[in-house]
Amino acid sequence: MTLKKILPLIIAIAPLFASAQKLTCTTHERTNVILERSAEKRALVEQLNREAELYTTQHYGERAGGLKVIPTVIHVIHENGAENISKESILSIMEFVNLELRGQNNTSTVSAAFQNIIGDTQFELRLAKIDENGNCTDGITRTVSSQTNGAGEGVKDLVNWNDGSRRYLQVWLVASVGGGAGGYTYLPGSVSARANGIIIRTAQFTGTLSHEFGHWLNLSHTWGPTNDPAVASNCNFDDNVSDTPNTEGQTSCSGSRTTCGSVDNVENHMDYTSCARMFTLGQAARMQSASNSTTGGRSTYWASGNRSATGTNDGFTNSCVPTIAFGQDNAQGCEGLIVDFEDNSFGADLDASWDWEWSFPGGTPSTSDDQNPTVTYNSAGTYNVTLTITNNAGTDSRTVQNAVVVNAFGGGLAGFTEDVEDSGFPNNAGNNKDWSIESAGGLTWQRSDLASATGNASVRINLRNITEGDINDLITPPLDMSNVSSII
Known about the structure:
Largest sheet: 6 strands, mixed
Structural class: alpha/beta
Helix content: 10-25%
């Protein structure tokens, strides 16, 4: 294939359409596989269910015992795409979810039939301030890995704070979950402490965490222990909660929808609708029962000793040294390249004590104390970038080698021809002919000899395998336009 250019060109490809995806969950599917294989774990779950039935009978509608704080860590698994969610967004979503757990999220919109049974679960998810090694933390970790795509159990080996202990509710945020799910966890008693936790597609974090936390504390879907809603045979199952109507399960928010002979509680967090607002009193009691039980290990999380060990006890404060990370909007260009840098450091709360020291060899300015500076590179070359941050807790520094590549003017003359026949493409034999690729990682532009319009090769990208939000740039070598009188 032959490509003819008269201008420097960046060919940028990103998925253009985000498909609408309902909240789905594979908790029951995964848990049921484990229970089918292990009589011992089946017995644990059955014991929890007997405890829940007795507890609900004795304590339905009660709010005694006070708030239970669950130490939580958010593990962000990413490839520098949209799945690398900001700390501000995480904090906002955590606050929102805590309102949902207390039955305080716009519950006036709940159907009249269920207004009197809106439950306050009396749980709060609180980010840890001490990590598994006793170090200072803000309760958020960030790990770069391609396992963020189609994620499954493997992400738990990338970063795990419950290796042999039950101290943190771990939430792994990923770009996508295997099988197209919005998230999943395991019912209490079915997996080890290390495997215990919640995996969620970042784009569905807001609508999924309350749902999966319900599973984590032994709630079923409202239609019973399967993953598929809107199935007539679901009327034959039950979720073991007396005040949730038997239902086929819903994916829409029609408050007047009736299945299995009664009005469905479409605003329930354990259904699949986008209008979830509530747990029932019965569900709240069942969650409390699971949290009190040693059978599934949930009683250790909110215990006072564990709260002290994780820095989640009331009034605890800390000040951490940030872990340096930064991004930039350009990594390569011609002389006069302008680059916007962004501080993405994590692991510490931003406060007035933070001091930024940037070093930009070859750039103008060559240093900066701005949090997010803009730098111009006027001379060809390859340049490192260093960021050092100091706060009340100490200092951290990071240098990225070859962070900026500036090409000299006077490259190939326009018009320019690239036939992609060189097997080393995007690198080419000869001067000023190398192309470059900028990608979020994983699959990107590649040379192929399977198809071409002319010659033996072409360059292509497979959009079906590109994660939503990722941008892949295919960039020409620099071109000398000084003799070009017109553009065609």
